[in-house]
Amino acid sequence: MIYGYVRVSTREQNEARQMKAMSENEVPEKNIYMDKQSGKDFKRPMYNRMVKRLREDDVIFVKSIDRLGRNYEEILEQWRFLTKEKKVDIVVLDMELLDTRRGKDLMGTFLSDVVLQVLSFVAENERKNIRERQKEGIEAAKMRGVQFGRPKRDLPDNFEQVCYQWKSGEILGKEAARLCSMPLSTFYGRAREVNIG
Fold first, then answer.
1. Average pLDDT of 35-57?
2. CB neighbourhood size of 128 (10 A)
3. Which helix (H) or strand (E) holds 23?
4. Among the four residues 123, 157, 164, 181, which has the most C-beta atoms within 10 Å?
5. CB under 8 Å, gap of 24 or more: what pairs does 113-116 form?
6. What is the pLDDT of residue 65?
7. Averaged confidence pLDDT in the chain
8. Binning pLDDT at 50, 70 and 90, where does residue 115 land?
9. Angle between helix 106-143 and 72-80 (nearest 10)
10. Is 195 left (phi over 0), alpha (psi -120 to 50) or beta?
11. Whose CA is closest to 27, among 60, 74, 67?
12. SS3 for 44-80, per residue?
């Protein structure tokens, strides 16, 4: 049987390019499994469903190694598991050397292993770079004054009085939160922001 695996990191990303590649390689549509989540690990429902169906000599098509995953060690482990234990072939369409149907001799296996290790390293490194760029983008946005998360609600008129009573030990936090009509955790968080003698 021929299978295809497609992965995009978010629901907003488009899988059309990968689906086109599957169609061009005559992967039956019913045998294409797609996940819309990060490639940081292999805890993906559709990937695991596909793996359960695999039988010896089946073939898995994937557009590029980073669509399979972005964690160096896990990619290598999955590759070993699929090719050695499940005894299936893997075809990485963007890298001709990563086609386990070819070159099953010692030299072919060696070349495939070397290329796999290099590409797996690149995939994980790109994942780290994406996270770093994301972090830098968030920091730059914060410096421009962009607010993240839900906007803070205005404090109730009685907040300072209730907060004073709580800080002086007259009432418990639970009662203070009730008097201010807010969750206890919100009361504590907002009380830390207010400077009351």
1. 91
2. 10
3. helix 16-24
4. 123
5. 116/65, 116/75, 116/76, 116/79
6. 80
7. 84
8. low
9. 150
10. beta
11. 60
12. CHHHHHHHHHCCCCCEEEECCHHHHCCCHHHHHHHHH
Q: Would you state the pLDDT for residue 38?
A: 84
- pLDDT at 154 (0 to 100): 83
> Tokens standing for 194?
């207010």
Domain ranges of the chain: 2-126, 159-193
Catalytic residue among 9, 38, 64, 168: 9
Q: What span, in angstroms and rounded, lies between the C-alpha atoms of 28 and 56?
A: 18
pLDDT value at residue 103: 67
Residue whose pair of structure tokens reads 């993240």 in the numeric block: 148
Cβ–Cβ under 8 Å, residues 69 and 123: yes
Residue that the structure tokens 């001709």 belong to: 96
Number of helices (H) and strands (E) in the chain: give both, helices first.
8, 4
| pLDDT for 196 beyond 90 | no
3-state SS, 112-158, equals HHHHHHHHHHHHHHHHHHHHHHHHHHHHHHHHCCCCCCCCCCCCCCC
Is 64 designated active site?
A: no
